[in-house]
Amino acid sequence: MDARELSDWRRAERERLIAAREALDAATRAQYRRRMDEAIERAFPGLARSVLAICWPIRGEYDARHLAAKLRARGAVIALPVVVAPRTPLEFREWHPGAPMAKGPLGIAYPVGTPRVVPSAVLLPVNGWDAAGYRLGYGGGYFDRTLAALRPRPLAIGVGYELARMDTIHPQSWDVPLDWLVTERGVYRRERDGLVFLGVPAAGEVSAFASPVCYAGEIAPDYFGARER
């Protein structure tokens, strides 16, 4: 398909997949979030020592803030992306609960006045994902530009639901594949021939990508309250 046809097709697929995600009830999304938190925590223990970029959740996306609070308590620096200008790479600013916030494109919140940081890993929401490890985002291309520009490139861990699986997003030359993908099912790793499902490490299991963890209680509902400007 030509560029216009591809753009129209991606727009339709994006709307379809977001609608399917938003149709999930709150209890199901919370259950999926807990499964994904557990999988990420066990599969990537090094995140507790990282500068980790997450995204403020919108439209039923996986909510990384619960996991981020745990990792931050263990020493991680948590950051949120900031749109600086159209068609340019993103910047990242440190985030903590209670940080002053403003709203950017798509109504996505970002920190105001906090230090700029460079992430070593990114938990990257997906509207859709395919077997080759490519993600369908919101169409602005910000994360593709950012991942292509950052040196060293941060670890790109996609986060999304199994219902977002696609045969292909018809990747183009500018699309940057994920390194890993985590869904409520478990962990996928991108290899030469595409994504390979690895499952979820059991508690106490020691493997190339896992380590045992302990779990804190659920965070209070108002924990993530932030002042918006």
Descriptive notes:
The chain has about 230 residues and is of the alpha/beta class. The protein has a single domain (about 5-195), classed as NagB/RpiA/CoA transferase-like (Rossmann fold, 3-Layer(aba) Sandwich). It is built from four helices and 14 strands. It has a nine-stranded mixed beta sheet with strand order 6-3-2-1-7-10-12-13-14. A three-stranded mixed beta sheet has the order 9-8-11, with helices on one face. Strand 2 (about 75-80) and strand 3 form a beta hairpin. The longest helix is centred in the first third of the chain and has 20 residues, at about 5-20.
Could you outline the blueprint of secondary structure elements for this entry?
Layout: H1 3-22, H2 26-43, E1 51-53, H3 65-73, E2 77-82, E3 91-94, E4 101-103, E5 109-111, E6 116-117, E7 121-125, E8 128-130, E9 135-136, H4 142-149, E10 155-159, E11 165-166, E12 180-182, E13 187-191, E14 194-199
Parallel strand pairs: 1-2, 1-7, 7-10, 8-11, 10-12
Antiparallel strand pairs: 2-3, 3-6, 4-5, 8-9, 12-13, 13-14
Descriptive key words:
229 residues; alpha/beta; Rossmann fold; nine-stranded mixed sheet; three-stranded mixed sheet; 4 helices; 24% helix; 23% strand; disordered C terminus
Whole-number count of domains:
1
SSE string:
HHEHEEEEEEEEHEEEEE
The count of β-strands is 14
The first-to-last residue Cα distance is: 43 Å
Cross-sheet strand order for the largest sheet: 6-3-2-1-7-10-12-13-14
The CATH superfamily bears the name NagB/RpiA/CoA transferase-like
**Tally of helical segments:** 4
Q: Strand share of the residues?
A: 15-25%
Report the principal-axis shape.
globular
Report the CATH C-level class: Alpha Beta
The oligomeric state of the chains shown is: single chain
What's the story with the biggest beta sheet?
9 strands, mixed
Query: Low-confidence runs (pLDDT<50, min 5 residues)?
Result: 206-229
Overall mean pLDDT: 88
> Helix fraction?
10-25%
Using only C-alpha atoms, the radius of gyration works out to 17 Å
